[in-house]
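User: My advisor, Dr. K., asked me to get a structural model of this assembly before our group meeting. I'm new to this, so sorry if the format is off. These are the inputs:
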Amino acid sequence: MIFVALEPLVGGAVAAASVGLFAIGVYGVTGSNNLVRQLLSIEVMFNSILLIVILLLSYDSLIATLYSIILTSVVAGEIIVVIAVVVSLYRAARSLTSEPLEEAGV
Amino acid sequence: MVEDPSGLDGLRSIAVVGLSVSLLLSGYLVVRVRDLVYASLALAVLGLVNAMLIALLGFSIVAAFLVIVYVGAAVMFIIVSVSMLGGGGQEEWRPARGAAMAALFGAGLAVALAATGAYQAYSTPTPVSLREVSETILSRYGPAIGVLFVALAATLIEAIAVAKARR
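Assistant: The format is fine. Below is the predicted structure of the whole assembly, which you can bring to the meeting.
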């Protein structure tokens, strides 16, 4: 099968995309002071990590599937909590930037 | 090595490379689009492209789960919340700091992947059925899934408590 012969190309492309996506996520988290932008950037990093998990565990498709499902479930819960914190902070400070948190010493 | 006469596998490889590029473009949009609502929509596109890529790699159950749970619920929740909150103040960018950290962490991850041989780790997976996945979850990973279920329920309650808390 041609796909088997191209497996190194496919793996290399996916790994390179994962690294690039992770770097983009880090750029968003450390470069912006907006909490929502930082949450979105963390989600970009999650997508990168999910691809890496699938790539590294592709030798056992059952394990890769299970780990990916658990990872996605945990991240969905994390999103709910972070959005709740952001809403709470917005109510208190009327701002979505990280300055109120930095002033409070968090 | 026998070549596939239909040429579909070659096309699939090209599609994987194309989707990888689309993934990077949508990730860039998430970070750089000024309006947060559009950035959240770009995140939904990123999740869909990621699901397509994962399906092409042979993990269709994970792709379906990603579309239903992640894009369909979590990212939609982000979009609705961001739409209701609005911009929330002036966003300031520190591009030099962001670029330095991105280069540092990106290089670190690239080195780690190269050291573990992840660039050549991909092998076409054997098909796995939904019945097999659910049976394994319930038998071998039953306690772990139970803990995950309780943790997610506690997370939901915590989120409601935080959002309803007074100043």
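One thing worth pointing out at the meeting: The domain at 2-103 of chain A is CATH 1.10.287.3510 (Helix Hairpins).

User: Perfect, thanks a lot.
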